[in-house]
């Protein structure tokens, strides 16, 4: 499935503004599975998205948890708990 991923605040500083990618999960396609998949892509992704990092998520601009189901065309955002504007 095609997913748009957006990064904000310190996650954006580490990884850039975002990317459009093809994502196929080994199990259920969830935000948590996407985070794990992204974290395994490179050391930079791993450092920014590891579970030791406090990172919030949103799917289609609605806050969500790791168990949120993904679908083709979803937009997922990753950001720290507090961001400035």
Automatic annotation (TrEMBL):
Domain of life: Bacteria
Name of the protein in its database record: MoaD/ThiS family protein
Originating species: Aquabacterium soli
